[in-house]
Amino acid sequence: MPFNTNQFLDVFASYNETVFPMQILLLVAALVAVRLSMNGDGGSSKTVACVLGFFWLWMGFVYHCLFFSKINTAAFVFGAFSILQGAIFLYSGVIRNDLKFGGRWGERRLIGTVLIVYSLLVYPIAGMSLGHGFPYSPTFGSPCPTTIFTFGLLLRSGRKVPFYVLPIPFIWSLVGTSAAFLLGIWEDLVLVVSALIGAGLLISFHPLKRFRVGPSFGLKEN
């Protein structure tokens, strides 16, 4: 890597001190999205998609391009893909209405909830215990905890998530996990877990189809 651990944490300090109190507003938006993901109606799902889109646009424009780029020029590439992912969420969830949140409790929603709790609560606590206290910490709104949150929220969807929504968060999870091993940001290890389990469950998910008896006495799909 073209930077060391201290330089990496200094970026977070600069970012956190500059954008404060935006971190609080991002957390509030995340909690609102989690609450709306329980409703299962179209309007709530579109709002959740808008929140996810904003998070990824924020990561691309603000964190990557304005701050992380000071120590790593590859941040402009990361930023471009984050911005693209933000646009994908807006396109998929608002324009096409392909993202539907809500539905019955099950394995997917349970795992999604665990990832959400980790990203919003356990992640910062783990960071502090490892010596990454504020402002030298990846707060919510920075890529790693927000990506874990993204997989958690997608797992609360009530229909199959379009495949094109997943590659960028999945690839970033693999890239971001390198910080755990090379820089000692061990709270990021859950990134790869969220990517592998989350993507696997989302790709394999097929909602139960409802059938009715047709005039020919056969079963017809609704």
Provide an overview of this structure.
It is a single chain. The chain is mostly helical and 222 residues long. The chain has one domain. The chain is 65% helix and 3% strand. The chain contains eight helices and two strands, in the order H-H-H-H-H-H-H-H-E-E. Strands 1-2 form a two-stranded antiparallel sheet. A hairpin with a 5-residue loop joins strand 1 and strand 2. The longest helix has 26 residues.
Write out key terms for the chains shown:
222 residues, mainly alpha, 8 helices, disordered C terminus
> Radius of gyration from the CA trace?
19 Å
Q: Which structural class is indicated by helix and strand composition?
A: mainly alpha
How many strands, which pairing sense, and closed or not: the largest β-sheet? 2 strands, antiparallel
Helix and strand succession?
Answer: HHHHHHHHEE
